[in-house]
Amino acid sequence: MTTAGEETEGSGGRLARAAVAASALAALAALLAGGRWGEWVFAAAAVVMPVALSALGATRRGRLGRPLAVALAALLAILAGSFLVLFLLRGRLLDGPWIAGLPLAPAVLLGGVWLLPLALVGLVYALTFERHGITEEDLARLRSLHGEAAER
Q: Each residue of 4-55: pLDDT tens digit?
C-alpha cells in the first residue's frame, strides 16, 4: 500500500499546485508594491487562485478529467471577463445601463464573480459527482492511512 507521499503525481497536480503558489505570491507582491501594475497583478491572482484551488481539489491520481477541465476553463474565462469589465468600468460606477436595479459594475460583480461561478461549479459538481467524487475505495484508503498515522 502506498502512502500519500509515495503516490505518483501527474502533471495536473503539479500544475495546479504551481498555479496556487504563483498566484499567492503575485497577490502578495501586488499588495506590497501597489501602483498601477499592482492592481492588474492582484486581479490576475484573484482570477487564477480559485480556479487553481478547484483544480487541485478535483485532481485525482494526478489527472483532471475532461469535463472538469472544460468547466474550470469556463470558470477562468468568466472570472477573467468579469474582472476585465470591472476594470473598464472603474470610475464610472453610475454610468451606463442598469441591470435588475443595479448599475452595471455591481451587477457584473454579483453575477460574474459570484452567482454565475457558483452555479457553474455547483452544476458541474452535481453532474460529475459519481465519476469524480470520493469512492468507497478512497474512504477505505483514508481510514487505513489514518490508522497508520495514529499508530505512530
A: 433 444 556 677 778 888 888 887 887 787 777 778 888 888 888 889 888 8
Report the C-alpha gap between 119 and 71 in whole angstroms: 11
State how far the Cα of 31 lies from the Cα of 147, in Å rounded to an integer. 43
3 state SS of 124: helix
The residue among 77, 115, 90 whose CA lies nearest residue 40 is 90
CA distances from 54 to 64, 101, 105 (A): 10, 32, 26
Q: Where are the domains of the chain?
A: 11-151
The H-assigned helical ranges of 1-135 are: 11-33, 35-58, 66-88, 104-110, 116-132
For the question of whether the overall pTM of this predicted structure is more than 0.90, the answer is no
Q: CA-CA distances (angstroms) from residue 14 to 11, 55, 60?
A: 5, 10, 12
Residue of 4, 8, 5 whose CA lies nearest to 142: 4
